[in-house]
């Protein structure tokens, strides 16, 4: 019997029917509610375009003119007591299969041929990763754009949460070779020449750019909408590690440069949704699935939650139900990918979507309801986090990225250290009540903290002391 309360979510992607017209949205919400899901992860910012009208990026070209998919999802889902998490592809810039959103799309403005291109590149200058182009977190202007895109959704829509997807570098490990990124790396570290992809110092620096981007989005979003649920769709390739030492040997940490355990420890995430896309019965992948779930569960901090995201499109409905049950009985939530392709038969085009949804509905049973199927739908009630955080910025005529910032309590005891991003932003989360002081480059500022995000004034640096 599966009676564990918690998240039962459904990813709704925007690469096919589901969100583009009022009829599609109505069907999507009806199907999800009818199957017992309590949360929709709705693709919103896709590849530099939006399935919405009120964001800082242009409207997707394949949306019915004048229609606002996100607003309609929220209206219908909230009426059915479903939460709506806006799913944002943070570094997404372009996909070959999608129509252009026009001259305002980031790829049109800062694509491969632009003087100020924002794309992540390989050492040879190439920028395509399969059918996609990615923005580089190491380019300050690109990072500003990515933060603004995500936060504009939170500011303008009554979403319950924000999910950060593609908050990393592309697969392969040989990315980040934009001239701007390389120049920043050399300036901030004193390195010379062009680092090799396997250079550990280079990888650590890029990993920090990803974490800094995550930190700023999280704090800006929480400042814009207190109580918003911050989530990330995180990478869990291969077999799960036993501990943090083993994690640092995984592709997650060493290749795509995503240190999500650190994000959890720092309090940047309220819900970590693992993209735990494994196939039971294939090369022992069921144990890989369980190992990642167990490891992620060990990384929880405070009220943060973990959910296993499963690949419904790679599995039979029976396997999907079994994986969901294992996650839930293990104390995690569950999110299925995806509404458009709910079974492997639908993905292989041997079954219609409606047939796949019906087959899935038939086996989920007690997974989707309380008390073994007799207690009705499960309500997910995330525990609100009583967080105190600081968001500030260093400005000046000298470099503002890569500067160490220290935080102290009123009695002088240290609260933590971080480094500024390429735009000079820094932040601290989960601070104790009282007054916090930040120190950087000989400058300092103290401020009493309130629940939520306290914005510190800009700190002007004209000179840097040794060691900064």
Automatic annotation (TrEMBL):
<feature type="domain" description="Glycosyl hydrolase-like 10">
    <location>
        <begin position="24"/>
        <end position="279"/>
    </location>
</feature>
<dbReference type="InterPro" id="IPR003790">
    <property type="entry name" value="GHL10"/>
</dbReference>
<keyword id="KW-0732">Signal</keyword>
<dbReference type="Pfam" id="PF02638">
    <property type="entry name" value="GHL10"/>
</dbReference>
<dbReference type="InterPro" id="IPR052177">
    <property type="entry name" value="Divisome_Glycosyl_Hydrolase"/>
</dbReference>
<dbReference type="InterPro" id="IPR013783">
    <property type="entry name" value="Ig-like_fold"/>
</dbReference>
<dbReference type="InterPro" id="IPR017853">
    <property type="entry name" value="GH"/>
</dbReference>
<protein>
    <recommendedName>
        <fullName>Glycosyl hydrolase-like 10 domain-containing protein</fullName>
    </recommendedName>
</protein>
């Amino acid at each position: 019997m599966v009676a564990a309360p918690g998240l039962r979510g459904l990813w709704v992607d925007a690469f096919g029917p589901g969100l583009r017209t009022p009829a599609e949205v109505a069907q999507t919400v009806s199907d999800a509610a009818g199957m017992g899901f309590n949360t929709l992860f709705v693709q919103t910012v896709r590849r530099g375009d939006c399935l919405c009208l009120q964001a800082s990026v242009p409207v997707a070209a394949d949306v019915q003119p004048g229609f606002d998919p996100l607003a309609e999802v929220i209206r219908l889902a909230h009426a059915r007591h479903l939460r709506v998490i806006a799913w944002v592809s943070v570094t997404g810039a372009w996909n070959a299969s999608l129509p252009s959103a026009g001259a305002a799309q980031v790829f049109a403005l800062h694509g491969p041929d632009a003087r100020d291109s924002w794309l992540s590149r390989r050492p040879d200058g190439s920028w395509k990763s399969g059918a996609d182009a990615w923005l580089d977190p190491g380019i300050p202007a690109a990072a500003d754009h990515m933060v603004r895109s995500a936060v504009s959704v939170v500011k303008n829509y009554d979403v319950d949460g924000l999910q950060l997807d593609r908050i990393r570098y592309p697969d392969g490990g040989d990315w980040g070779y934009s001239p701007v990124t390389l120049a920043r790396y050399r300036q901030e570290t004193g390195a010379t020449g062009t680092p090799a992809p396997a250079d550990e110092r280079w990888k650590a620096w890029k990993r920090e750019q990803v974490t800094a981007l995550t930190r700023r989005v999280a704090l800006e979003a929480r400042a814009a909408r207190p109580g918003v649920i911050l989530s990330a769709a995180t990478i869990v390739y291969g077999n799960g590690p036993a501990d943090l030492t083993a994690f640092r040997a995984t592709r997650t940490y060493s290749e795509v440069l995503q240190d999500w355990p650190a994000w959890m420890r720092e309090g940047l995430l309220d819900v970590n949704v693992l993209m735990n896309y494994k196939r039971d019965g294939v090369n022992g992948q069921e144990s890989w699935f369980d190992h990642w779930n167990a490891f992620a569960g060990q990384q929880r901090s405070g009220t943060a939650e973990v959910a296993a995201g499963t690949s419904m499109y790679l599995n039979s409905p029976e396997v999907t139900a079994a994986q969901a049950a294992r996650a839930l009985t293990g104390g995690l939530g569950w999110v299925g990918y995806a509404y458009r392709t709910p079974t492997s038969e639908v993905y292989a085009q041997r079954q219609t979507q409606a047939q796949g949804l019906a087959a899935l509905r038939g086996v989920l049973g007690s997974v989707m309801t309380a008390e073994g199927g007799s207690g009705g739908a499960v309500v997910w009630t995330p525990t609100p986090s009583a967080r105190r955080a600081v968001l500030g910025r260093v400005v000046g005529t000298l470099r503002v990225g890569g500067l160490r910032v220290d935080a102290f309590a009123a009695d002088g005891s240290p609260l933590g250290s971080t480094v500024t991003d390429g735009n000079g932003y820094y932040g601290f989360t989960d601070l104790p009540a009282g007054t916090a002081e930040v120190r950087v480059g000989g400058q300092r500022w103290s401020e009493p903290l309130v629940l939520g995000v306290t914005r510190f004034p800009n700190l002007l640096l004209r000179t840097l002391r040794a060691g900064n």
